[in-house]
TrEMBL record:
The keyword DNA damage does not apply. ATP binds at K359. It comes from Acorus calamus (Sweet flag). It is found in: Cell membrane. This is non-specific serine/threonine protein kinase. Residues 330-603 form the Protein kinase domain. Its EC number is 2.7.11.1. Keywords: ATP-binding, Cell membrane, Glycoprotein, Kinase, Lectin, Membrane, Nucleotide-binding, Receptor, Serine/threonine-protein kinase, Signal, Transferase, Transmembrane, Transmembrane helix. It catalyses: L-threonyl-[protein] + ATP = O-phospho-L-threonyl-[protein] + ADP + H(+); L-seryl-[protein] + ATP = O-phospho-L-seryl-[protein] + ADP + H(+). The keyword Cell membrane applies. GO terms for molecular function: ATP binding; carbohydrate binding; protein serine/threonine kinase activity.
Length: 603
């Protein structure tokens, strides 16, 4: 059967090509039935039809397939002593077939890795390349091109359907929404769904002869191959064919020799799939601008953006130079954490010696800057003892810096999972504080404030272990007595999202209450919303697990074992049952914040 493919031309630093050196440096797979020199790990397998299947539709899965032998990527320029990364050319035909037509995860990467053993990596948003502790480390020596089908705010993903270039991290140095440019008669940029289930061809060319220096990133000897992963959303990730050449141009893949994808549902595979369309998904350029003069660098370093309309909001504005000095240049040593949309740094205002936390937020181009500043200014007027106070802001090109009170005891999740064990008394006080803060947002301020991301990592603890709800990066405001607007994207964190959000795309006070219910169970049980209840068990949803115990009359057995007997039974039962009520599957089955008793945080 002849297969016609969409082609994705992915050009990276293309220059002249050199001659290939060995057979290991030049290989071509039309299917993988009799493939040699291919190492598989994780869920990766070769099907009877000769497809390389990296993952199936099992949740939280990862798969790897690498060329068995390492390739020598370092060479010298002009016969001298300067080390450069050798040029390479590769193309491969892939298909991502999601379990559900509009929801697939998490994607495929082509990787140049110092090792073919990535067993320590994690699935889900880490794509089988990194884990939570090493992502972003320069010691990874990892270069990858990602085909990402889930938007993850932790890494600043632009959307849920994009291609990105990754260097030691999943925060892409460059990325673009998946799409292509039509042929001469078609014109224009057209969207392309990576999870369409159709075969597509990606072509990557890199030439290390440019002045861009990747010699510190790519190891002298490295492996080439693929990784893929799934999360709560799953996909079959296939590679149908692969061509690679080091120091030369990869050989052409013949679509007629490729294996066929398995049929999807009742549909038969069409006899003809599109082929030969000169589609360009994106043209990416990796460039390092060297030799910028010190004077220009100094001038741009502290540049800010000022506009007259900002004056009407009356919000205190810090200078960038002031915040740069307060944080000692935003050094990694002062990094408090990475949250939705940005990094948070500790600082100290030199004049008042006030400790502050500064969050650097990349501005969302889909929303007008004036509207965004207006909303932040409104949030800056919130005053409640259980909310983190916004002190002011600074504005630069494409970036906002938000200045908050510093919370010395950090975020609650670090104490719940891995830190010193919290007593039940401390947990109960924290729970009441968060409920009180959320009641204020919903019912006691001039407008309704939807937080949209209530979870332990967004609950900060002051010097006396009082809870402060923070991180209003996803918050939305609307007038009392009106309905919130429907959004184009579902935002928040898996495990805390109310069931109706995926259908209505409309956040409400009820969706915040659902997240609060999960939060209550998490604090009482000492377990994450989605995790194995025991090491030997498969992944389970915390709400379902507690509900099962409640139905058996053993709900108290779900309490965090680290508490021992240090609990007040009446209080723990109240919290667990309230958590179940707040996380009711139907929005109209949940209480309001007033009905939860959130106004009484002192008893």
């Amino acid at each position: 059967m002849r297969i016609f493919l969409r082609e994705i031309l992915f050009c990276i630093l293309v220059l002249t090509r050199l001659a290939s050196s060995t057979d290991d440096d030049d290989f071509l797979f039309h299917g993988f039935r009799d493939a040699k020199n291919l190492s598989l790990n994780g869920a990766a397998e070769i099907t009877q039809d000769g497809l390389l299947k990296l993952t199936n539709t099992t949740v939280r899965l990862k798969g790897h397939a690498f060329h068995t032998f390492p390739l020598r990527f370092h060479g010298s320029r002009g016969g001298g002593n300067t080390t450069v990364v050798s040029s390479f050319s590769t193309s491969f035909v892939f298909a991502i077939v999601p379990m559900y037509s509009q929801l697939g995860g998490h994607g495929i990467t082509f990787a140049v890795s110092p090792s073919k053993d990535l067993s320590w990596s994690q699935p889900v948003q880490f794509l089988g390349l990194f884990n939570v502790t090493d992502v972003g480390s320069s010691s990874n020596h990892m270069f990858a091109v990602e085909l990402d089908t889930i938007q993850n705010t932790e890494f600043g993903d632009i959307d849920e359907n994009h291609v990105g270039i990754d260097v030691n991290s999943l925060s892409s140095v460059n990325s673009s929404t998946a799409g292509y440019y039509g042929s001469a008669g078609g014109g224009g940029f057209k969207n392309l769904s990576l999870i369409s289930g159709d075969p597509m061809r990606l072509w990557i060319e890199f030439d290390g002869a440019l002045s861009v220096d990747l010699s510190d990133v790519v190891s002298e000897s490295a492996y080439v191959g693929f990784s893929a992963s799934t999360g709560r959303a799953t996909s079959d990730h296939y590679i149908l064919g692969w061509s690679f050449r080091l120091n030369g141009e990869a050989r052409e893949i013949d679509p007629s020799k490729l294996p066929s994808l398995p049929p999807r549902g009742p549909k038969k595979i069409p006899k003809l799939l599109t082929i030969g369309l000169p589609l360009i998904l994106s043209a990416f350029v990796l460039a390092v601008v060297a030799g910028l003069g010190f004077a220009i660098h100094r001038k741009m370093k502290f540049a800010e953006v000022f506009e007259d309309w900002e004056l009407k909001y009356g919000m205190h504005r810090f200078s960038y130079k002031e915040l740069y000095g307060a944080t000692h240049g935003f050094r990694d040593g002062g990094l408090l954490g990475v949250g939705g949309f940005g990094r948070v740094y500790k600082g100290e205002l030199p004049a008042s010696k006030t400790a502050i936390a500064v969050k650097r937020v990349s501005h969302d181009s889909r929303q007008g800057m004036q509207e965004f500043v207006a909303e932040i200014a409104s949030i800056g007027q919130l005053r409640h003892r259980h909310l983190v106070r916004l002190l002011g802001y600074c504005r630069r090109e494409g970036e906002l810096l938000l200045v908050y009170d510093y919370m010395p005891n950090g975020s609650l999740d670090k104490l719940l999972f891995g830190g010193p064990s919290l007593s039940w008394k401390q947990r109960f006080v924290i729970i009441k504080g968060v409920a009180s803060g959320l009641l204020y947002l919903h019912e006691e301020w001039g407008q309704v404030v939807l937080h949209r991301d209530v979870k332990p990592s967004n609950v900060l603890l002051d010097g006396e272990m009082n809870a402060r709800l923070g991180d209003f990066g996803l918050a939305r405001l609307y007038d009392h007595g009106t309905d919130p607007e429907t959004t184009t994207h579902v935002v928040g964190t898996f495990g805390y999202l109310a069931p109706e959000l995926t259908m209505t795309r409309k956040a409400s006070t009820a969706t915040d209450v659902f997240a609060l219910g999960v939060f209550l169970l998490e604090v009482a049980c000492g377990r994450r919303p989605i995790a194995p209840i025991k090491e030997s068990e498969t992944e389970q949803i915390l709400v379902d697990w507690v509900l099962q115990h409640w139905m058996r009359g053993t709900i108290v057995e779900t309490v965090d074992a680290s508490l021992g007997g240090d609990v007040v039974v009446e209080e723990i039962e109240l919290v667990l049952k309230l958590g179940l009520l707040c996380s009711h599957q139907k929005a109209n089955g949940r209480p309001t914040m007033r009905q939860t008793g959130g106004e009484d945080s002192s008893t």
